[in-house]
């Protein structure tokens, strides 16, 4: 049954003026064998480098003229191939997909950068966006493809390590490494975890609270001391009660005096309003008198003009008409058509005299009106003086009698208020000091806050039970000597073979058990359709067996053959790549992809083509 993931199809070195160095892989078992110094370890380093590793492949003389590395990948579900291209000297990746524009993938993993090689490979492995916890408090981070690298790519030094195959041996990363292994076993990540506070941080925060409370308490006590109040807090409470009574009485007294003052102030405003009305009426009459004087002057002017007209009319009536008053013509030459009907001069004089008599009558009436106004003005002036006296009398009452009483009442109120505020502040400060003291006692009595204790991140034995059976099945198929039962150690986070931990064995057993661990995980994910990259690469799992450790004298020599045959049979739909010095059984060629380096002129010399030296004999 296929799982989501990918497989390696080929690794190619490209350079100028040199032939490409290439090795091709297929589905199922792949074995690259040959003596030392033929490039096997260099291939492993290149593959690790092309899967996002930060370490450059260690340079060898044969690789000096090569410039870039290309790793061909095949999707497990579709079989489509893509190529990752990267300079052998570092830098980012170029993703080449047939029929599509090339993409640049950054070499460094970032949760926010979706165009990184880590995110791309996680997507192929079905692990995009998965989170794992990274510490005991439950803080989480996104999975990086490098978290999976140790479980799918094992070099010749790691394979014999005493450290668990799932761990790097670094204490700071152990929590996340166990969480990654659990993720592959269960398919469930730690994204739902809510982290708790670090006990050290909580303890420091608690100490900071106590220090701050102590500072606030000292400040509060200092303020109470500055007030210099006698007695204890009970005496302060009694004084406060008394002062509040005095304060209420002063408030009432001041309210009464203010009410009396308001009555007098109302009376004063009423008198002022009456005074303003009298002054306004007096002003209006004075303005009328001024205008009446102007009118009288106008009457006299009109009277003099009428008298002049009347006298002129009388004089004209006494004169003989000799010449035309219009054109000056003599009487005998006058033409009367242009004359208009006009009154006689005597008639005009009489009319003017009659009009003058009317004006004299109006002047007489005006004199009477002005006389009446003068009388009213005098009366109004007397009334204004009386009103002013009344206003002054009310103002004197406000200033001389009521104002001192109001000031005394206000002084008593302010004095009682100041005393009340002092004792009230003292009582409040004492209550605050007691509250701060209580908080300090409570904090000092508490155990250092640890937050909610989360379950350990270590993989439990029951969680790895089915996985352990997969390891046992592989070891049994490899004819592992003295095999009884395989279990899982929660303390070591490693397998226990027949009651003995893997780390307690010699290097040969540790290497084979390490291979069993990684291959069993692949087989487990294959059977239960859990996310996994889809391949495992192991460097030198059997080489140490060539010279067994002293405690491995009973280690059967047919393990090597059984090892290869079992893997070829069990992993036909996945991919396993083994690098070994010794060749596998010759009859494995039909069931596996065998790549043999000879290190000599016969056959393929090694990974990188080298010129065949001529026979110097």
UniProtKB/TrEMBL annotation:
<dbReference type="GO" id="GO:0006302">
    <property type="term" value="P:double-strand break repair"/>
</dbReference>
<dbReference type="Pfam" id="PF13476">
    <property type="entry name" value="AAA_23"/>
</dbReference>
<feature type="domain" description="Rad50/SbcC-type AAA">
    <location>
        <begin position="20"/>
        <end position="293"/>
    </location>
</feature>
<dbReference type="InterPro" id="IPR027417">
    <property type="entry name" value="P-loop_NTPase"/>
</dbReference>
<feature type="coiled-coil region">
    <location>
        <begin position="233"/>
        <end position="267"/>
    </location>
</feature>
<dbReference type="InterPro" id="IPR038729">
    <property type="entry name" value="Rad50/SbcC_AAA"/>
</dbReference>
<protein>
    <recommendedName>
        <fullName>Rad50/SbcC-type AAA domain-containing protein</fullName>
    </recommendedName>
</protein>
<dbReference type="GO" id="GO:0016887">
    <property type="term" value="F:ATP hydrolysis activity"/>
</dbReference>
<keyword id="KW-0175">Coiled coil</keyword>
């Amino acid at each position: 049954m296929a799982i989501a993931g990918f497989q390696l199809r080929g690794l190619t070195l490209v350079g100028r003026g040199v032939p490409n160095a290439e090795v091709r892989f297929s589905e199922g078992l792949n074995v690259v064998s040959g003596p030392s110094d033929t490039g096997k370890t260099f291939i492993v380093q290149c593959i690790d480098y092309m899967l996002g590793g930060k370490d450059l492949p260690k340079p060898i003389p044969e690789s000096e003229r090569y410039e870039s590395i290309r790793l061909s990948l095949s999707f497990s579900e579709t079989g489509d191939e893509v190529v990752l291209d990267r300079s052998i000297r570092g830098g980012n990746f170029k993703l080449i997909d047939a029929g599509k524009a090339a993409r640049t993938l950054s070499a460094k993993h970032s949760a926010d950068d979706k165009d990184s090689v880590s995110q791309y490979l996680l997507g192929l492995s079905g692990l995009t966006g998965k989170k794992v916890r990274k510490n005991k408090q439950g803080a989480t981070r996104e999975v990086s493809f490098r978290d999976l690298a140790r479980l799918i790519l094992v070099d010749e030094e790691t394979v014999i390590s005493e450290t668990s195959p799932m761990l790097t041996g670094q204490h700071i990363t152990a929590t996340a490494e166990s969480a990654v292994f659990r993720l592959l076993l269960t398919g469930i990540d730690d994204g739902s975890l809510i982290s708790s506070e670090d006990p050290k941080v909580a303890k420091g925060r608690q100490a900071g609270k106590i220090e701050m409370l102590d500072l606030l308490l000292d400040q509060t006590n200092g303020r109470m001391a500055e007030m210099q109040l006698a007695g204890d807090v009970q005496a302060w409470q009694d004084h406060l009660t008394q002062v509040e009574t005095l304060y209420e009485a002063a408030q009432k007294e001041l309210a009464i005096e203010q009410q009396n003052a308001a009555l007098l102030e109302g009376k004063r405003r009423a008198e002022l309003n009456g005074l303003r009305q009298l002054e306004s009426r007096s002003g209006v009459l004075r303005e009328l008198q001024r205008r009446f004087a102007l009118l009288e002057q106008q009457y006299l002017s009109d009277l003099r003009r009428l008298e002049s007209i009347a006298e002129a009319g009388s004089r004209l009536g006494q004169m003989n008409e000799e010449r035309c008053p219009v054109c000056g013509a003599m009487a005998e030459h006058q033409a009367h058509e242009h004359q208009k009907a006009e009154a006689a001069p005597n008639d005009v004089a009489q009319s003017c005299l009659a009009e003058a008599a009317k004006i004299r009558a109006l002047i007489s009436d005006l004199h009477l009106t002005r006389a009446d106004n003068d009388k009213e003005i005098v009366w109004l002036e007397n009334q204004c003086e009386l009103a002013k006296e009344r206003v002054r009398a009310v103002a004197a009452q406000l200033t001389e009698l009521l104002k001192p009483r109001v000031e005394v009442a206000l002084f008593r109120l302010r004095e009682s208020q100041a005393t009340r505020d002092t004792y009230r502040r003292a009582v409040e400060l004492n209550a605050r000091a007691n509250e701060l003291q209580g908080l300090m006692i409570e904090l000092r009595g508490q155990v250092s806050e640890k937050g909610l204790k989360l379950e350990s991140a270590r993989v439990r034995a029951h969680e790895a039970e089915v996985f352990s059976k997969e390891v046992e099945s592989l070891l049994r198929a490899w004819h592992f000597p003295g095999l009884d039962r395989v279990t899982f150690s929660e303390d070591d986070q490693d397998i226990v073979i027949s009651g003995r931990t893997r780390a307690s064995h010699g290097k040969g057993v540790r290497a084979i058990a390490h291979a069993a661990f990684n291959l069993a995980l692949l087989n487990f994910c294959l059977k239960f359709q859990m996310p996994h990259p889809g391949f495992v690469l192991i460097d030198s799992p059997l080489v140490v067996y060539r010279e067994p450790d002293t405690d491995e004298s009973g280690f059967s020599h047919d393990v090597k053959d059984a090892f290869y045959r079992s893997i070829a049979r069990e992993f036909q739909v996945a991919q396993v790549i083994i690098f070994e010095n010794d060749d596998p059984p010759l009859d494995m060629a039909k069931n596996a992809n065998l790549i043999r380096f000879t290190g000599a002129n016969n056959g393929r010399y090694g990974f990188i083509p080298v010129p065949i030296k001529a026979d110097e004999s």
